[in-house]
Amino acid sequence: MQKQAIFQSKLLPFALVAPQLAIVLIFFYWPAVQAVIQSFLLQDAFGLSTSFVWFENYLELFSDPAYFETIIRTFFFSFAIAGSSLSVALLLAVMADKPLRGGAVYRTLLIWPYAVAPPVVGVIWVFMLHPSLGVLSRYLRAAGIEWNPLLDGNQAATLVILAAAWKQISYNFLFFLAGLASIPKSVLEAAAIDGARPMRRFWTVTFPLLSPTIFFLLVVNIVYAFFDTFGIIDTMTRGGPGKSTETLVYKVYNDGLIGGNLGSSAAQSVILMVMVIVLTGIQFRFVERKVTY
Amino acid sequence: MANVTLRNVRKTYPGGFEAIKGVNVDVGDGQFCVLVGPSGCGKSTLLRMVAGLETVTGGEIDIGGKVVNQVEPADRDIAMVFQNYALYPHMSVFNNMAYGLRNRGMKEAEIKARVEEAARVLELAPMLDRKPRQLSGGQRQRVAMGRAIVRQPKVFLFDEPLSNLDAKLRIAMRVEIRKLQRRLNTTSIYVTHDQLEAMTLADILVVMNGGQVEQIGNPLAIYEKPATTFVASFIGAPPMNLMSTRPDEIKSQLGGAGDAGILGIRPEDFVITDQTPAGGVALPLTVEAIERVGAETFVYGSRQQDDKRVAATPGELPPGEIIVRIPGSEAPPIGQKIRVAAVRQKLHLFSGDGRTRIEA
């Protein structure tokens, strides 16, 4: 069997990978380099003059209490989204893992939400929970809850977390289902014979054996909540009311494109970039090297 | 301590497939019962039904005088050793053994005492802190055994526990299991497809085929008087030679018994001789192949004329081929014509369909 492809010309292999390389360079490296350069620059209000200011943008960010508030808010959002979507997905996966009539249909339906684009997710949830138009809002009001996410920051945050978590459930569900399938049935049977009731069996056997999957998903979900929720936030709340749903990513957009402060925006995106690198590093270190129990 | 009684036990899967077609077995207190049969005969399903891991669709399973059909596995007071050991990979050896005791709310001091005693018996004491993946196959097997014995259950269930071990270790563990069971005197049910394991371990041997019991009894009694051609060819290695009694050559020698249908003779019951013992059977053979294994020699010979195939069973020889076991010092050359004979008492006669033994 021949493993190595033989090319007549030296040019052809390069030509074949060129489109992919071009995409990576143009859409990933070029903007990254731009962001780093931009973060050292300061522009005047009209964009007429630009000066090189070294780390001034960064220093300004770190001396701004609002920025720290956004960091804390982003972490809160991330853990709320990751936590709720992981636990719901795990619950659904455990139930779907049981022999069910029509189990395949059930599993397929649960995977669908993943195919929905984030802005569309936002729109769907806005429709359902809009204070005056929403279907669910009527029931909430009927239940005596003052529901108005357009005015109430906490409610807006809840709404964003709900929508973002909902979309991620499918992805987590899929991984949990695979994780559950990889636990040998006989181990659970042995636990049943060893006198462990279903709940205890879950917490002492299934859950520890799923821990590599859980850890992997936790990292993926946090990255998702940090970055991919932009579309959801943009369609649902635009970071408001006030700053109650403004995460780090949304602040980059707000400060840069809306506020016109390109230098600060670039500095923020560089900070985000560092965070992603750290998270990916953690993932490689602990997940790729196969977590053992 | 308990006896296990299966009364007309049946298992029909939702699709309509009948895996167990009415099995009756009675295992006395402290007895070692072995279920043996080819793969797919339902022996593992039956064991899992006793364990409570499969539902019972008909009949009754009785452990220690109590019908347990609806009882959860945890409440049947049984312990099971799985083929792949099914150890908890995230727990240490100690915790693997202690898990079942903790679930039952036993005091830590008592748990420690029991686990350490089991570890001593099974020579696992230096490994109590290790994880299963740090153990060899044989050690894992012993941990699985330890997990069963610390519980001091009424019944041990073994589901092909030795089939993942290499040949040498398998024999050693086989002896260990037998010694351990004798000492603890716990009622045991053991599933295997290996007839040698079955013969050496069993007090009661249950030979199964196609979801049914073919024969139950003492292993040697089964060996000496197999009830069907299936049992005859499954128990004993190399298998019993089975041939039709139709050809004149055999029929004339058998006299009145020649109408039986199938004649069986074990390889070791043949001798190479020119004489024909009175009432016995003599066959002329051409030596096709020999296997010398040291203590004995197996001669594969073909009969001159032969007949249709006889009873489709596992380990069946090609039609017309006969295996003869002779002392290891002898080795007739290939192609030689020999004559083998067996005495009357060593002949097994079966009906034409192989389902009934006929006492001559």
Provide an overview of this structure.
The complex is a heterodimer of chains A (293) and B (360). Chain A is mainly α and 293 residues long. Chain A contains 12 helices and 2 strands. Helices cover 72% and strands 2% of the residues of chain A. Chain A has a two-stranded antiparallel ribbon with strand order 1-2. The longest helix of chain A is centred in the N-terminal third of the chain and has 32 residues, at 65-96. Chain A is globular and about 75 Å long. The model of chain A has no long low-confidence stretch (mean pLDDT 81). Chain B folds into 2 domains: 4-228, P-loop containing nucleotide triphosphate hydrolases (Rossmann fold), CATH 3.40.50.300; 230-358, OB fold (Dihydrolipoamide Acetyltransferase, E2P) (Beta Barrel), CATH 2.40.50.140. Chain B has a 6-stranded mixed β-sheet, sandwiched between helices. In chain B, strands 13-17-14-15-16 form a 5-stranded antiparallel β-sheet. In chain B, strands 2-1-4-5 form a 4-stranded antiparallel β-sheet, covered by helices on one side. The interface between A and B is medium-sized, with 20 and 25 residues.
Produce a short descriptive summary.
The complex is a heterodimer of chains A (293) and B (360). Chain A is an all-alpha fold.
The tally of strands of chain B reads 19
DSSP strand content of chain B: 25-35%
Backbone shape of chain B: elongated
Q: How far apart lie the N and C ends of chain B?
A: 42 Å
Classification by helices and strands of chain A: mainly alpha
Helix tally of chain A equals: 12
Q: Whole-number average pLDDT of chain A?
A: 81
Number of self-contained structural domains of chain A = 1
Strand content of chain A: under 5%
Salient structural properties:
heterodimer, A: 293 residues, mainly alpha, MetI-like fold, two-stranded antiparallel ribbon, 2 strands, 72% helix, B: 360 residues, alpha+beta, Rossmann fold, OB fold (Dihydrolipoamide Acetyltransferase, E2P), six-stranded mixed sheet, five-stranded antiparallel sheet, 9 helices, 26% helix
